[in-house]
Amino acid sequence: MLFQVGGQGTRPTFFEMAAAQQLPASLRAALTYSIGVMALRRPFLHKVLDYEDEFFSLLMLVLETHSLRTTDASFAESLYGLRRRAVKIRVKKDDARPNSGGGIQQSGLEKRQRILSVVFLVVLPYFKSKLHSIYNKEREARLQASLWGNSDVTVEDAEYFRGGRLLFSEGMSFAYQLLYLLDATGFYSLGLHALGIHVCRATGQELMDTSSRISKIRSNERERLRGPPWLKTFQGALLSCAYTVLDYAQTGLIAAVFIFKMMEWWYQSAEERMSAPTVYPPPPPPPAPKVAKEGIPLPPDRTICPLCSQKRANPSVVTVSGFVFCYACIFKYVSQYKRCPVTLMPVDVDQIRRLFHDM
Hints:
mainly alpha, 3-stranded antiparallel beta sheet, zinc-finger, single chain, about 55% helix
């Protein structure tokens, strides 16, 4: 299975390299989610989740070793039609400048580079994940201790040291990716630079020869079997089963990534729809309070104060009833009678509010 992102020439685009780099994380998330769902009915699978780092690292160790051996590329890079090439800079003797006539010579990976590639792809991420888990546990313990006042080292100190290391790591990664994007370097990451490896697009002939190369490697492994005929037959059958399982595992893992991404998009869209605030129409205004029989009648003109029968000056509202009067009129009335003059509802002077709609 092969995916093409675009671009021309042998140099992969930035997006191809970024997609290949992010694929293992998506694969791990897909496997974790799938095993978590199956563990609901098969409780023994919770043990796999308890050793998630070890399980995933062992799986990636098998996949990366097989992929580097057969295609000279990591598992993710091979899916995008990429290949790793050892880089050697050749410089003319009469001129020490690399661009004066020399060039970059690319060749197949050496055995040492394949082993170190597995270390950078599997071993180092495993230790990074374990250190991250240890740090989180230690941080939680320090946080609890600091809350109880039993710790001399504050959480801010631990965050400062971790932030410095994280800043260096992320800064180096960003610098290499930026230089790669600007075509200032052929190395996408510090690890590839340390190994002296360029990632290039595979030619059409290389892609066609991949299957034959894998078949040749597997036939050579069968020829190396030693022992009686029955033992060689048994060992060959085991190798065939292992290769079949490996092929199906590669296809299944890619399918799991796509299914996980599709479900993630589906549930994210559903959550966004559920979490989006529902816009309801504004409620209708409450009905006007009834005028008491003993209360002061309302004038036909709404701009007239019911108390002084004059045009309102400094209009003020009684909050319990909503009727508007002159401020001086209603303040004097409420101070004396402690009620609304229209509805006769109990009112205090603190419940009079000045209206500023005329300002």
